[in-house]
Design goal:
This protein is 46% helix and 7% strand. By secondary structure, the chain is mainly α. It is globular, with a radius of gyration of 27 Å. It starts with 5 loop residues before the first helix and ends in a 37-residue tail after the last helix.
């Protein structure tokens, strides 16, 4: 069995629909991908209260990361007059794609960057379109539990006492 050309196996771009136009964001270079992953890791550490790698964060601040992760789509968006929040959302979506995968990037894009929209809200969990009850018994439920008394401590099988 021979390996197939990797370019044929990987989808090396994402397409972002903005204001009736489709912007294609190509896969970044290995250097940009590695730097993006390091930046996201450093940001996650800082968000969790840890000490972030200041060198990584400093390097990212010195460069135009959004331009790097969006590639030619960045200049196209600028030329088309895309507003800052939209460009920022597109760039962060590309960063999620680079650091994780296309599925995670699609979830981020669809949630408009709002973490609370990534998980179903309480109303959505409560509304059950099938109308069926939950199969999980409530905490106070005795469904599925035995009502037989527990044998006295020290009594073994078939009523024999242990010594």
């Amino acid at each position: 069995m021979a390996f197939e050309e990797l370019g044929e196996l990987l989808d090396e771009s994402i397409e972002l629909p903005i204001a009736g136009r489709l912007y294609t964001v190509p896969a970044p270079s290995a250097e940009i991908g590695l730097r993006t992953q390091a930046l996201i890791h450093a940001a996650a550490v800082a968000a969790d209260g840890g000490r972030a790698d200041e060198q990584v964060l400093g390097d990212a601040a010195e460069r135009d990361l959004y331009r790097d992760v969006l590639g030619p789509a960045h200049d196209e968006m600028i030329a088309d007059g895309v507003k800052w929040p939209t460009l920022k959302h597109a760039a962060i979506t590309a960063m999620v794609w680079i650091a994780q995968d296309k599925t995670a990037a699609e979830r981020y894009w669809t949630a408009a960057g709002d973490p609370s929209r990534l998980a179903p809200n309480r109303a959505a969990r409560r509304s059950n379109p099938s109308g069926a009850a939950s199969s999980t018994p409530s905490r106070g439920s005795t469904s599925g539990t035995s009502t037989r008394p527990v044998p006295a401590r020290g009594a073994g099988k078939k009523g024999r006492k242990r010594h």
